[in-house]
Amino acid sequence: MEKLLYEVEAGRATENNQFLKDIFQACMMFGVEYLVIAVRNTYRTHNDFEIVYTFLETLYISNRMHLPLKGILLIGY
């Protein structure tokens, strides 16, 4: 059975690096295999979705850090 963790960020996903905290917490939780993060497309003047997407893409492409998750799904709303 695959275990999912859902996190919905209402607005401060990038201002306080909340998305990084979500990733860290998911990695530390026993049995969590997949993380789903929902962030606003734009919050105030920040393009939160693009910021988080770019970070995750860079993390994956660089292959410098390996997370104990099978996958992360990013949803913009």
Overview of the molecule:
- With 77 residues, this protein is α/β, with parallel strands linked by helices.
- The protein has one domain (4-76).
- Helix content is 34%, strand content 22%.
- It is built from 2 helices and 3 strands; from the N terminus they run βαβαβ.
- The protein has a 3-stranded parallel beta sheet with strand order 1-2-3.
- Helix 1 (18-28) links the parallel strand 1 (4-8) and strand 2.
* Secondary-structure element pattern, one letter each: EHEHE
Q: Taking all residues together, what is the mean pLDDT?
A: 93
Extended strand count: 3
The structural domain count equals 1
| Radius of gyration, taken over Cα atoms and rounded to an integer in Å | 12 Å
Structural class: alpha/beta
Main sheet properties: 3 strands, parallel
Strand order of the largest sheet: 1-2-3
Share of helix, binned: 25-40%
What best-fitting shape do the alpha-carbon axes yield? globular
What is the count of DSSP helices, taking H or I runs of 4+ residues?
2
Q: Point out poorly predicted stretches.
A: none
Q: What oligomeric state do the depicted chains represent?
A: single chain
DSSP strand (E) fraction? 15-25%
